[in-house]
Write a structure and sequence with these properties.
The protein has about 300 residues and is α/β, with parallel strands linked by helices. The chain folds into two domains: about 180 residues, Rossmann fold; about 90 residues, N-(1-d-carboxylethyl)-l-norvaline Dehydrogenase, domain 2, CATH 1.10.1040. It is built from twelve helices and eight strands. Bound molecules: acetoacetyl-coenzyme A and nicotinamide-adenine-dinucleotide.
Length: about 300
C-alpha cells in the first residue's frame, strides 16, 4: 500500500515506478517524498558526485522527519531512514531509468534548451503509457515538451512542487492545451497519495504561486537597492507584520539566487504578458551576487552568509 501510519494518503499505488531527473534540492525532495509513501523511485543525475550530494540532502531531511516522528526512539528513527532510502535507486543513466518508469518527473537545471533535449530523449525511451512531467518554476510546459511526439502530448504536464518538498503541501498541476483529463486525474491522485494538496492551472508564466511570489521578491530587492531599509529589517517586517514564515531575503537565499535570476531574466525577455514589465525587471544586485557565486543557502552565501 502507499502511505504510512502517519499519513492520510490513499492506499492504491498510482504508479509502479517513478523516475526523478535531477538530484538537486528539488529532485532529492521529490524522490524522498515519493519513497516515503512507498513508491519505488529512480533518482538520476549527471555524475556520482551530484548523486551523492542529492543523497546527502535526502538523509539530512529524513533524519529531521524521523526525529519528529519517532521522538527519542533512535532505533526506530534509523529504521525509518533506511527503509525510505531502500526505495530510492541512484543512477546516472537517464535512458535506462526512464525505460522502466510510468511517471517521470524532470527537476533539472532551469534551462529551456537542456530541458527540451531531455524531454526528446524521454519520449523515445519511456513506455508508451508513461506520463512526462516537469517541475519547472517558470518555463512554459508546452515549450519544454516541443520535442515530444504527438502521441505523448496528452501525457505531458507540469507537476510543480515547493521547497522544502517534504514539508510544503502544495503541488501545482499544469495543463497544456493538449494534456488529457486522464493525465490530470492520475497526477491529482498521485499528489494526494503523497499527502500533497494539488491545484490545477493553465500553462502561464509562474503558474499560480510564482506569478505572485516572484514580483514580490523582486520588489524586495529593489527596496534594498533603493536603500529604503536593510535586508534584515525587510525580513523582520514581512515575518512579523505580514505573517510570512520567512522574509523575502531568507526565501530568496532558500530558493536559490541563480534560479530566481533565471526566472526574472526569462520573463523579462519573453514571458507571456510579462515581457518588458517592471514587475520582473532584472536586478543589478541579484546579477552581482550570482556572478560572485553567492547562490544562497546551497552555496553557503547569498544575501546572507550561512
Ligand atoms: N525536510 C523535511 N522537513 C522539513 C524540512 C526539510 N528540508 N525543512 C523543514 N522541515 C519541517 C520540520 O521538520 C518541521 O516539521 P514539523 O512541523 O513536523 O515539526 C517543520 O518543517 C518546521 O520546521 P522548523 O521549525 O525547523 O523551521 P521553520 O518553522 O522555520 O519552518 C520552513 C521551515 C517550513 C522552510 C518555513 O520557514 C517555511 O514554510 N518557509 C517558506 C518556504 C516557502 O515559501 N517555500 C516556497 C518557495 S517557492 C518555490 O518553492 C517555488 C519555486 O518554483 C521557486
Ligand atoms: P539544483 O541546481 O539544486 O539541481 C539541479 C540538478 O539537476 C543538479 O544536481 C544537476 O546536476 C542536475 N542536472 C542538470 N542537468 C541534468 C540532466 N541532463 N540530467 C540529470 N540531471 C541533471 O536545482 P533545483 O533548485 O533543484 O531546481 C530544479 C528544478 O526545479 C528547476 O527547474 C527549478 O526551476 C525548479 N524548482 C526550483 C525550486 C526551488 O525552490 N529551488 C522550487 C520549485 C521548482
Amino acid at each position: 500500500t502507499v502511505g504510512n501510519k502517519d499519513s492520510v494518503a490513499e492506499t492504491a499505488p498510482h504508479f509502479a515506478s517513478i523516475t526523478v531527473l535531477g538530484g538537486g534540492q528539488m529532485g532529492a525532495g521529490i524522490a524522498q517524498t515519493a519513497a516515503t509513501f512507498n513508491y519505488t523511485v529512480n533518482l538520476v543525475d549527471m555524475s556520482d558526485d551530484a548523486l551523492s550530494r542529492g543523497q546527502g540532502y535526502i538523509i539530512k531531511s529524513l533524519k529531521r522527519v524521523a526525529k519528529m516522528r519517532f521522538k527519542g526512539d533512535e532505533p526506530q528513527q534509523s529504521r525509518f531512514v533506511d527503509d525510505v532510502l531502500s526505495r530510492i535507486k541512484l543512477s546516472t543513466d537517464t535512458e535506462s531509468a526512464a525505460a522502466g518508469a510510468d511517471l517521470i518527473i524532470e527537476a533539472i537545471i532551469e534551462q529551456i534548451e537542456t530541458k527540451r533535449a531531455v524531454f526528446g530523449v524521454l519520449d523515445k525511451v519511456a513506455p508508451a503509457e508513461a506520463i512526462l512531467a516537469s517541475n519547472t518554476s517558470s518555463l512554459p510546459i508546452g515549450a519544454i515538451g516541443e520535442a515530444v511526439g504527438d502521441k505523448r502530448k496528452g501525457q505531458l504536464a507540469g507537476l510543480h512542487f515547493f521547497n522544502p518538498v517534504p514539508q510544503m503541501k502544495l503541488v501545482e498541476i499544469v495543463r497544456t492545451e493538449r494534456t488529457t483529463d486522464e493525465t490530470i486525474d492520475r497526477l491529482r491522485a498521485f499528489a494526494k497519495s503523497i499527502d500533497k494538496a494539488p491545484v490545477l492551472c493553465r500553462d502561464t508564466p509562474g503558474f499560480i504561486v510564482n506569478r505572485l511570489l516572484v514580483p514580490y521578491l523582486a520588489e524586495a530587492i529593489r527596496m534594498l537597492e533603493r536603500g529604503d531599509a536593510t535586508a534584515e529589517d525587510i525580513d523582520t517586517a514581512m515575518k512579523c507584520g505580514a505573517g510570512y514564515p520567512m522574509g523575502p531575503f531568507q526565501l530568496l537565499d532558500y530558493v536559490g539566487l541563480d534560479t530566481v535570476k533565471f526566472i526574472l531574466d526569462g520573463w523579462y525577455k519573453e514571458g507571456e504578458g510579462l515581457a518588458g514589465s517592471d514587475l520582473v525587471r532584472p536586478s543589478e544586485k541579484l546579477d552581482e551576487l550570482v556572478r560572485n557565486g553567492r547562490l544562497g543557502v546551497k552555496s553557503g552565501a547569498g544575501f546572507y552568509d550561512y
